């Protein structure tokens, strides 16, 4: 469905590339997590797929659900970015309005998306009346209402408390599995990647390259408790931490590459 071929990116007025030689294939319906040190170019990969920027070198090939070379994508950020003067329902309708979806169809799809994230009774409220977790649910509903081929998630749960984050992670997994939505997730949380992803792409420090792709063996249907109890969870977690340690050290001189594993993810 998506293929990065020797992709590199250098921003204007800079000489150092953000990434170089990225080769990655993502299959339809797959959930792939990108993990790496801060500033290594994970979000740039999402922006390339969203069409917000262009690759400097290489190619990105896509195949949409209708067999075209275009993907209908939705982007969900760490900050919900809800419009404070619009109700929750009208926030969810916003992307549909921009796409020219007629009023009745727009309202139907927005209501269905709110029901998916368990906010159907809060559509007439305004963002300031919602908790942080509810605001992020609304942002996710706004993306789902577009019925995307591709869901791009840039640390969508990073600002939430651990309890809320765990519930939303499981809700997200249930939704994308139900609809077969191809999903690309940027995260700094190894546990989140292991809970949600089919594969985890471990990225190096700048210029970013793919250091290793880890296949997650927990099956497509999973829950947080079952993943934490799986005998391969701790070894995989350790493997990914050790892959990341020298990359984090390269991007942050306060981290020692050879230090023992004492930090919690």
TrEMBL record:
Ranges for domain ABC transporter: 2-230
CDD domains for this protein: ABC_NrtD_SsuB_transporters (cd03293)
Entry keyword set: ATP-binding, Nucleotide-binding, Transport
Gene3D superfamilies, A to Z: P-loop containing nucleotide triphosphate hydrolases
Pfam families: ABC_tran (PF00005)
GO molecular function: ATP binding; ATP hydrolysis activity
Protein name, entry field: ABC transporter ATP-binding protein
